[in-house]
Structure formats: structure tokens, C-alpha cells
Amino acid sequence: EMAIGDTVVRGRIDAIFADPDGTVTVVDWKTGEPPADEQARKHAAIQLAVYRLAWAALSGQSEDTVRAAFHYVRSGKTVMPENLAGADELVELLAAASSAEQPCGSSVPG
Q1: Does residue 104 carry a pLDDT above 90?
Q2: CA angle, 5 as apex, 3 and 105 as ends, to 5°?
């Protein structure tokens, strides 16, 4: 669990692997199929961006030394997005998603 802006995000990292170059890779195992289109891939990558940020904070590492990937168990395919959102972009994405979920005329408590 961690706060990103005004949003508390909860998740469970499946695995972390130390890489030979001194970085680490956070892996999320998936039982379904990889996203079929670019929009779905971008949406899925938000989860990895949060995991990467969380592991960097928990381990005291720089975000630059933490990679993240989905491993699709059925197909055996590993997908590692090249550009994951950083902290500032995640704050904006989560704030936008939160405001989009608010019914008309209601406000988000501050």
C-alpha cells in the first residue's frame, strides 16, 4: 500500500528478480492473454508503473534501477513496457481517473 498523490493504491507484487547489471525487475504474473490493442496495453502498464514506484520506495532504490514486466503464464510471453509512468504522471493519471468516476455535481473530498 502506498499513497500516490491523494490516492492510496494497494497491490501485491508477485516477484522481484535481481538482474546482472545491478537493476531489479518486478514481475506480475498474469493468467489471461496479453492486451490486444495499444490503449489496453497503456492501461495495463499503469499497474506496472505503480509496482515499480512502490518497489523503488520500499527498497530505497532509484526508479531508474527498477524495471517491471508482465509474464503471461499460458503463453509464456513476458512483456516489458519501454516507457512506464513516473510518480508525477501517475499522480495526474490517478487524479483524472478519480474525477472521472465522480457523479455529476459531486466533489472529491480534499
Answers
A1: no
A2: 115
C-alpha to C-alpha distance for 72 and 85, rounded to whole angstroms: 21
Nearest CA-CA partner of 23 in 70, 64, 80, 69 = 64
Neighbours of 89 (CB within 10 A): 13
Hey, what's the cell of 23? 537493476
The reported pLDDT for the residue numbered 109 is 44
Q: 8 forms bridges with which residues in the sheet?
A: 3
Rounded to two decimals, the pTM is 0.81
Return d(Cα 6, Cα 27) in angstroms, integer.
Answer: 26
User: Distances in Å between the alpha carbon of 4 and those of 67, 80, 86?
Assistant: 19, 22, 11
Q: What are the cell numbers at 53? A: 514506484
Cα–chain-centroid distance for residue 72? 16
Contacts with 19 (C-beta within 8 Å, 6 or more apart), sequence order: 25, 67
